[in-house]
C-alpha cells in the first residue's frame, strides 16, 4: 500500500479503586503506545510517563525504514531514565521501586512494504481483529502465562491465581529488558487494540471481541472498552487504544476532518516497485 490512512481512538480511566492513574498512552501516528506503571504514586505514573515521552521523541523524528532500531532505542532510553529515577529515590527510601509495562505499535517500511511492527514488555496486551475474529498477538510476560505454557494451570485457573498480577519482564527491572517483537502484514490487521491489564483483567476476550466488532468508530470502541472494564469492577486503571486501517475496516463513517491521519509523508511517500 503506497498510502496508509489510520482511524484511531483512545480512552483511559483511573477505575473505582485506585486513587492515581498510573497508565499513560501515546497516539502519534504512526506510533501508538500504552504503558501501565507499577510502584504507586510518583513511581508507576512517572515510569509510564517516561516511556511515553521517549516514544513521543521517536514519533517526532521517525524513519519507518529503521523502525525496529527506533523502538529498541526508545525502550533503552526509557529504561535508563527509570533506573536513574529509582536509584535517586532509593537513597532516601530503600526498597522503593518504579516500573512499567509497555505495548507499542508502529508502521514500518520493510523492503518497500508497509507493515505493523508490534512490541511488548509485561502483561499489557496487543490484539488484532481479522475477518471478524479476535486474536491476542502479544504474549504476557507473567508468572501465570509461564504456568499456562508449561501445562501446570489452565487459562481459567490463571484468572483467579494468587500470582496472576506478577509479571516477569518490565521496564525498570534492574536485570535489563527483553521486549518481544512481532512483524505483521498490514492486510492481516483490520483493527488493532493496545490495552492495559485493567481492561483484560476485568472483561473476557469474548466481550472485547463483541465490542470491537459491533462499535464501528474506534473512538467509541476505545471508550466502550474502558467503560465496560470500570463497570465490571474497575479494580485497576484501564486504558485502550483502537486503530483501524482505512480500506480494511467495514465502516467508513469516521469523521475524517477530526482525526483522519494520512501517513504517506511519514512513510516517505510512494515507492516504485
Going across the biggest sheet, name each strand in turn.
7-6-9-10-1-11
Share in helix: 25-40%
What share of the residues does DSSP label as strand, in percent?
Answer: 25-35%
Number of helices: 8
The structural class is alpha+beta
Mass-distribution shape: globular
- The number of strands is 11
N-to-C terminal Cα separation, in Å? 11 Å
* Rg calculated over all Cα atoms: 18 Å
Mean pLDDT, as a whole number?
87
Query: How would a textbook summarize the main sheet?
Result: 6 strands, antiparallel
* SSE string, helices as H and strands as E: EEEHHEEEEHHEEHHHEHE
Low-confidence stretches: 251-273
Structure report:
With 273 residues, the chain is of the alpha+beta class. 31% of the residues lie in helices and 27% in strands. The chain contains 8 helices and 11 strands. It has helices at residues 44-60, 67-90, 143-149, 155-158, 197-200, 205-214, 218-231, 256-259, and strands spanning 5-13, 23-28, 31-38, 99-110, 113-121, 125-130, 133-136, 180-185, 191-195, 238-245, 261-262. The radius of gyration is 18 Å and the shape is globular.
Keywords:
6-stranded antiparallel sheet; disordered C terminus; single chain; 31% helix; 5-stranded antiparallel sheet; alpha+beta
